[in-house]
Amino acid sequence: MEEKDFELLIMLDKTKNITHAAEKLYISQSSLSKRIATIEKELGVQLLVRTRTGILFTPSGEEVLKTAETVTEQLQRMREKIALSKHILTGHLKAGISLNYATFRLADTLSKYHDKYSQVQMHIVTGDSRDLYRDLVKGDVDLGILRGDFPWHGRKILLATEPVCAIKGLQSKNKSFNEIPYIGRKTDLAFDRDISKWMRENHVEKANNESYVDNITTCVKMVENSSGWAVVPEICLDDFKGIKEPLKFKNGQVFERPTYLMFPETVVTLPQIRTFVQFVVQENHKEVPEWLTTL
């Protein structure tokens, strides 16, 4: 068996599905099946049983899996110790990052980190903050950079806040929001509630011919083309050609969108993750917390 076979077995145990495991490993399903057959032939035992709902490990397979997990952990510790002795940062890092933040703010930071610490194996998952939050809670990612305020018992660092704006196209300059269709988009429940609160306080209603899109880029482009108006965070408006109005609630509070860096406290004992956290905080012009520098 090779080291990559250990990763294969661990992923099969995690997904309980050959198709999903193949997707996670970036190989074809047929290649994965062939490799399983090769391992079974090499060891002389059956490792897996295929069922209608997925796969199950045989008793022999469970023993091999247990060994694979132990060896993988020991190899990783060995590499980290050797790298530290050479003053080279290495190891694995898996981060879940809000698609909007990754697109509009973090791409340059990720490139800088990779250039500086090229031996760290980074796996970046982008997507909706709600889904990434679930991944973080389940432990599927080491840390998350999420938009919005989610309950969290681990460490949570505020990276940025930006105003939320109502936007409309130049052709709608002299029209009120009630006169043009509203363009809604997929977002988290808390942000949607705040939008509804601002609308109620300002007596703004959604027109009967409102539209709904699944991403913020399409939403902004539709507004720019005078298809309606929308409420979006300023992060996506760097190149917007239209009218934007920063919003406030009735009590004078600014309508803002926060971005947090969140992670379990235990993960920053790993040098590659601790360095990544410090790097991201500094790139966002924030002061690194004292507790993070004394680990």
From TrEMBL:
Keywords: DNA-binding, Transcription, Transcription regulation. Gene3D superfamilies: 3.40.190.290, Winged helix-like DNA-binding domain superfamily/Winged helix DNA-binding domain. It holds the Pfam family HTH_1. InterPro entries: LysR_HTH_N (IPR000847), LysR_subst-bd (IPR005119), WH-like_DNA-bd_sf (IPR036388), WH_DNA-bd_sf (IPR036390). PROSITE patterns: HTH_LYSR. Residues 1-58 form the HTH lysR-type domain. One of its GO terms (molecular function) is transcription cis-regulatory region binding. The keyword Transcription applies. Belongs to the LysR transcriptional regulatory family. This is LysR family transcriptional regulator. It comes from Secundilactobacillus silagei JCM 19001. The gene is lysR_7.
